[in-house]
Amino acid sequence: MTKPGPAAPTLAVWAVRLWIASGVLFLASAAWFLIIGIGSANAFGIGLGVVSAGVGVGMLLLTRRTGSGDPRWRSVLAVLSLTVTVLGMLMAALFLDPFLLISGIVGLVGSMMAYRPAAEPWFTRGGVGG
User: Cα 16 to the chain's mean position, in Å?
Assistant: First the structure.
């Protein structure tokens, strides 16, 4: 019988929760963009929905991998969060549509929490899955 490891720091738990919330928000915005795009026969809306769905699924899959003990997964997730936040700012400015911006900011805040000194050792030792 193995002994359970130490409890995850609060910052690490909240980082994972915010990454999951960000992925779910991206999937919800993907559904919204697809419904609007298909309803109005707008190829841009359909494409934006497909890309948003891909980002949402990617965020959820990468969140699962962040606790494996390899800090590169956390870095990949942080870069993805930053990239989609910047693109969300562009979409919000050009089309007055804040869905992607809000989804990206939630993930970006999770990434910032994951790099705090209290959470750092938990992500590098394998806190979530191992």
Answer: 9
